[in-house]
């Protein structure tokens, strides 16, 4: 990943990003358990307290093992493609049994009953971390919108919109990493009478931490903060805070289900 220095007002992010207590340790965002070795250089880190940091560890183990179990159709270590996840399942027979007992198999499909609270706990942690690191915005309050689920379950047009870059309308926090990542591009539009017009756009694109394993998009625009996350190109998440003009894409799915 590109190493960007944060030039925003550091008073905005003070203390543990989760509880606002003293930040006596640091946490990788995303967690290294979601990635494969060799890890990408310059992984983002944020300040947090030991209590908060440790409170997520069991749920993170559950999430990484669940996702790979779903992708392989089994929680048996020999069937897991990622060596680090297979090792967790070998060393944690209780976790392996818990995930395997949640499997429901029919003639053509394998499904797992998901512990939604544990998944949401980890994804919200990641979203808060991206908001802090990329946008210099503390988002400790409950979000205004939260959705997570398999990316493939979104209708194709909603999925395309979810995966698209964001056209920035207003600047976010001056000096933040997110502001530094913005790109200016020019598009040529052809009208019906053959005339061309050029339109300049300010683009906020996805950050691919590790291909196939983890990517995210952090948006601070027009009164809203939106974080989108995709894990293993399977599990997708959208979290929104302080929404005003910026809307959430995945609510479209709910209205059409």
Automatic annotation (TrEMBL):
This is HNH endonuclease 5 domain-containing protein.
């Amino acid at each position: 990943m590109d190493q960007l220095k944060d030039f925003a007002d550091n008073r905005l992010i003070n203390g543990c990003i989760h509880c606002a207590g003293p930040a006596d340790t640091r946490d990788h965002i995303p967690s290294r358990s979601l990635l494969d070795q060799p890890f990408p250089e310059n992984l983002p880190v944020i300040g947090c307290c030991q209590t908060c940091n440790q409170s997520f560890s069991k749920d993170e183990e559950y999430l990484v093992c669940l996702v790979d179990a779903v992708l392989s159709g089994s929680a048996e270590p020999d069937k897991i493609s990622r060596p680090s996840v297979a090792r967790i399942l070998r060393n944690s027979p209780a976790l392996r049994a818990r995930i395997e007992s949640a499997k429901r198999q029919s003639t053509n499909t394998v499904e797992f009953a998901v512990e939604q609270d544990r998944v949401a706990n980890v994804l919200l942690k990641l979203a808060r971390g991206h908001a802090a690191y990329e946008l210099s915005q503390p988002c400790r309050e409950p979000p205004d919108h939260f959705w997570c689920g398999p990316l493939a379950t979104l209708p194709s047009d909603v999925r395309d919109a979810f995966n698209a870059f964001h056209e920035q309308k207003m600047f976010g926090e001056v000096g933040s990493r997110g502001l530094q990542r913005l790109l200016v591009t020019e598009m040529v539009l052809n009208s019906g009478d053959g005339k061309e017009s050029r339109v300049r756009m300010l683009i906020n694109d996805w950050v691919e931490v590790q291909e196939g394993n983890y990517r995210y998009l952090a948006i601070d625009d027009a009164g809203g903060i939106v974080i989108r996350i995709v894990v293993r190109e399977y599990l997708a998440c959208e979290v929104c805070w302080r929404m005003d003009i910026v809307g959430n894409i995945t609510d479209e799915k709910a209205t059409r289900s």
